[in-house]
Design brief:
With about 260 residues, the chain is mostly helical. The chain contains eleven helices and no strands.
Length: about 260
């Protein structure tokens, strides 16, 4: 059995098992609120047509991309600035601790006051929650730059943008991608929450409309769409991460091969 096939089987084993358990456990259900899985799947094609995908899924993905992108750029930029300056860390740490402790959903009514109820509000809600894991992981990654490498760069006169490009960002990139991965899952959650407030389209809006109309199987199909979207985004992120951090994973593999895992 090839390595790729084995990995695919391992990845699909648990989801298939969970679907099988759900199918069997719900097959005899007569509950209005927990219909059988076969009923939910039977409604899936009728509900999520190409037109509905265009009307609800595409706007949600675009909002998520905009908010997530804004958070990524802002978090990395601020994280590098704070992480490289001891004074900036001392100045910003109390405020950062306060702001990251505020749950982003609580800010939805506040953001609505300033940004209205359109896409700007939804993008701002997503960005307000995604920025913190990116920012904090970037700060941690920048602070963890190898001291010997930093001294070597200083000895060779590598400063400013060249130091940032050739030393700081490569060294901090594993931590930055950890923050980006955490932010992605937060972004999906906030995307749905933001679409439950004064929205006219989106996956969250569709799920709420199904719930209000007591279309329970249709509501469950919306939840399945969210799960499938999350899986697709995680796979896409994994591809980008492996390409961007190929040097890092290669170095870790080489250390494992020589019995030196850095522990």
């Amino acid at each position: 059995m090839s390595r790729v096939l084995r990995a695919a089987l391992f990845a699909l084993a648990l989801p298939c098992l969970l679907v099988g358990v759900w199918w069997l456990a719900s097959d005899a259900s007569t509950s209005v609120y927990a219909p059988p899985l076969r009923t939910i799947l039977a409604r899936f094609d009728d509900v999520w047509t190409v037109e509905r995908l265009r009307a609800d899924v595409v706007p949600s993905v675009l909002r998520l991309a905009a908010g997530y992108g804004a958070a990524a750029v802002t978090g990395v930029a601020l994280g590098v600035g704070i992480g490289t300056s001891r004074t900036a860390r001392a100045l910003c740490e109390p405020a950062l601790e306060f702001l990251r402790a505020v749950p982003p959903p609580v800010l939805v009514p506040v953001i609505m006051l300033f940004a209205g109820i359109g896409d700007t509000m939804k993008i701002a809600v997503i960005a307000s929650g995604c920025v913190w894991p990116v920012l904090l992981n970037t700060v941690a990654g920048v602070r963890a730059v190898d001291a010997i490498a930093a001294e070597t760069a200083r000895a060779y006169g590598i400063t400013g943008a060249a130091r940032l490009r050739s030393l700081v960002l490569p060294s901090a990139s594993p931590q930055i991608f950890t923050g980006l991965r955490q932010a992605l899952s937060i972004g999906v959650i906030l995307m749905v929450i933001s679409e439950m407030f004064a929205a006219s389209n989106g996956i969250g809006y569709a799920v709420v409309q199904f719930q209000r109309g007591f279309a329970v199987p249709e509501m469950w199909t919306g939840i399945l769409v969210l799960g499938l979207l999350g899986v697709a985004l995680a796979l896409l992120f994994g591809l980008v991460e492996r390409r961007a951090l190929a040097w890092y994973h290669g170095a870790r593999g080489a250390r494992r091969g020589t019995g030196d895992d850095g522990a």
